[in-house]
């Protein structure tokens, strides 16, 4: 099969779904590869790099979509790209099946197959294809770097001839994939790092990374809001009050707050209120990784960086992985390459779209003229 990657057209998107390295691996599966000229430019991969890896380079998006049997890309296809999608073609990309239901139905009507990368089941066997995790890892790392870039002091404490410098204090709210990456980055830069999550089972992991887990003075065990399956649910009002009281206590003390708290299929919980922002020191920084889902901080403006009257910088960017496009592209392209490996069991360039396979079935949202979302629950853990 011919696997093709167009240049992303979403404004500001710098990632690319195929790298010269991933193309070499795809060719080992018996496939041929094609990219649109300039597809890798913003991520640091030139047309010549692709050609050196045996990839055909075509000039236009029209030529790319025409040539490819399988189109691998990053962002949900635009309307123009949807028009190019054709019967028998397979599209692999992020594709929010709920928000973009019309596009999913249109793809099914056309007889195209769509594999949505965010639908890869989060089971052990599929970790190598889990693009949500690979991108969240980058977002967590980059959030700390972005905070540091907007913070006027060191992270680590220092005693120098020119004076004593106290270490920065960082609070990470939500210790999922992004939160743990933020914790690891923060502690490795030398900051005193605190972390909070409604899931108490992450406390040990947080502590093993050198951070302090924030426990609440709450009568029940600290797991209100921790649902089964490793995800969070909505906390009770009492738990939420206890959580906010603890954050109010911490707000004047911490220099940097990284919020990552999400609840599946809901708006992000509001956890950092206006009065907390007002009680923070001038020069403090909040990075709200939940900005796209409404934000954990009341004052976050999605996609923007603002500075409050009391001198607190609040960053609501939604493109952290794209801000590290080379790294993000190589991890995302590797996720896709592993998926292609499962789709090509004989390594002979022949696709076996096995709808009995939990991972392939779970991620396929359109196939054989049918909408195949939502998928049944996976059979294995
Ligand atoms: P997520 O992005 O859905 O949420 C981020 C974090 O916010 C979670 O840790 C959640 O508990 C926390 N949170 C929600 N409400 C909160 C609140 N009010 N206060 C504080 N924190 C709050 O999470 P994620 O990074 O996608 O990870 C979710 C789960 O999936 C985790 O258990 C993770 O270990 C698991 N996971 C498993 C695999 C696998 O392949 N087995 C891969 C990735 C993630």
From TrEMBL:
Main localization (coarse): membrane
Keyword terms: Cell inner membrane, Cell membrane, Membrane, NAD, NADP, Nucleotide-binding, Oxidoreductase, Translocase, Transmembrane, Transmembrane helix
GO cellular component terms, A-Z: plasma membrane
Catalytic reaction list: NAD(+) + NADPH + H(+)(in) = NADH + NADP(+) + H(+)(out)
GO terms of molecular function: NADP binding; oxidoreductase activity; proton-translocating NAD(P)+ transhydrogenase activity
Domain Alanine dehydrogenase/pyridine nucleotide transhydrogenase NAD(H)-binding per the UniProt entry, residue ranges: 148-316
All residue ranges annotated as the Alanine dehydrogenase/pyridine nucleotide transhydrogenase N-terminal domain in the record: 4-139
Family per record: Belongs to the AlaDH/PNT family.
Its biological purpose: The transhydrogenation between NADH and NADP is coupled to respiration and ATP hydrolysis and functions as a proton pump across the membrane.
Protein name: NAD(P) transhydrogenase subunit alpha
Source organism of the structure: Roseobacter denitrificans (strain ATCC 33942 / OCh 114) (Erythrobacter sp. (strain OCh 114))
Full-protein interval shown: 1 to 381 of 524
